[in-house]
TrEMBL record:
Keywords, alphabetical: Membrane, Transmembrane, Transmembrane helix
InterPro entries: MBTPS2 (IPR001193), PDZ (IPR001478), PDZ_sf (IPR036034), Peptidase_M50 (IPR008915)
UniProt-annotated location(s): Endomembrane system
Name the record gives this protein: Peptidase family M50
Membrane spanning residue stretches: 61-83, 184-204, 480-505, 517-538, 581-603
Main location: membrane
PANTHER family, alphabetized: MEMBRANE-BOUND TRANSCRIPTION FACTOR SITE-2 PROTEASE, PROTEASE M50 MEMBRANE-BOUND TRANSCRIPTION FACTOR SITE 2 PROTEASE
One protein family per Pfam: Peptidase_M50
Record's GO cellular component terms: cytoplasm; endomembrane system; membrane
Naturally occurring in which organism (per UniProt): Halohasta litchfieldiae
GO BP: membrane protein intracellular domain proteolysis
Amino acid sequence: MSTLLWILTGILAYSVIAVLLDRRGVLPDSFKVSGPLMTIHTGRGRAFLNWLSTPKRAWRALANIGVGIALVTMVGTFFMLIVQSVSILQSPPAETVLQNPRNALVIPGVNEFLPLSVAPEIIIGLLVGLVVHEGGHGLLCRVENIDIDSMGVVLFALLPIGAFVEPDEKSAGEANRGARTRMFAAGVLNNLLITALVFALLFGPVGSAIAVAPGAGVGGVFPNSAAEFADIEQGDRIVAVDGVTVDSNADLSTVLDETTAETLSVELADGRTVTVERSAFVTGLSEDSPFAGETGLSVNDTITAVNETPVSTERGIKAAAANESVVTLTYSNSTSGEERTTTGPLGVLTQVSDGGPLDSDGAPTGERIVITSIDGERILDFEDVTAVLDDREPGETVSVVAYVDGERDQYSAELASEPDGWVESTVEFFTGESDDDDRAIVGILGGASLSGVGVDGFGIQSYPADQFLAVLSGDIGDGLAISLLFLLILPFASIVDPAFGFNFAGFVDANAAFYEVVGPLSVLGEGGVFLLANILFWTGWINVNLALFNCIPAFPLDGGRILRTSTESIVSRLPIDSKPAFTRAITTSVGLIMLVSLVLMIFGPRLLN
């Protein structure tokens, strides 16, 4: 059975046993069961809250800050969800794994971004978040002289999913709106304070105690690639190639780019030395590539020759295609193993920009073209485009050979200057490194080298250990806010930014081999420091998400309760009848809008496409 089915079976068995024990009176009166949900009530802790709430003026001042933060976040969340919902309705995006309902659950092993290996750290973070959140409500109850009936936790099949503080209804009803608003906002404020504390520790002493281990980290190995045939596995670190030391992923790329050898001796960090027979393995293929299609190349195929010249690397492919725009690729099919051929133009697969130089000379926009030559120079990748235009000036005319739907066309493009608002990484290509406005552009949008055929002669996916560590230590150089944003997307980094290639759930499993512990904290050992870093990461991640989620202005969340007290305060000043009904109409409408927006975000792409 699948993991999900095992979990569902366990939840069902737990529910049956818990209900039977409750009906037979085996469970204490403080335990209340409702299917898989169990609440545990206690009156303990009230004396501690009474003592802690003594400096009431200071707590009220701090809680007022929490109210301000909650209100700003509520407004921002409201408009963000509205804008996102309208965008989904107008142009439904393609469904991603983030929209899978299972990934809305913070349950390790069910949520595919939360591996079971970090379940203890996630549970610790969840417990901390729930305790401090509800503890904030309880503390402000006593600060505002609101009595507490009971406190406790909510379990879903033994997994803590919530906590609660039950104020005395009569006492809460007698409190003024300001007191109740501060009490509702206290949980959000506490979550944010814990987030600030644990991230400060992560960015500071704990993050600085972790360093990237020397070598190139193997995050994954392509099936049927040269690396797999050489028994290189995920979690290995490559420390030398043909006797040349490799200290990082960049070093490995440099060594592989500079060597023309087809057979490589590769040393791994575990002491093994393996032999890699390089092969031009297809790692990616654009659907618009002239070599794609039912009878063309596929990912995992291996290119063996270009125009009958044997090749084993990307460099070899470029050399063999240097004198011909249209080439015949010979390749080994990954499914059948048979040798096949496919023919087409080999160059830069791109698109002509509206109003650019190529568009002005009649090149088609809105469809993919393959540029194979600029001013007589062979074009195979974007570096070739840069090299050709490097010495050109805006106003010069260059000839451009391109293939549209397999047909050869030639254009005379008068090079233009970089337009205002132009974005280097996503719009057009330019030459030169200066920041002036005299960069010569030919008028193409982003595309892919080798006609959209991605080739790797080695066959590994390098793990971005240094990028992940930079985020975890707050060392990405774009300010604290950007560091926090990147920190929050780490568990699904490859979905938000495919450039990462991997998700980061903590220093666990194979990726722990890419890091080492340095400095004074090394006395804790690698296991101790990694565990501490994982706990801090997940505690901060869960607490900030709890805070943001509770700020959604919808009942029964804290944001919905704050919305109610705020609306009551405003409506009480209006010259209208039936003020309670008007208040309910506003809060109910906002809550329904938020519910619809959340449903659209999760299920919209599936329902509307």
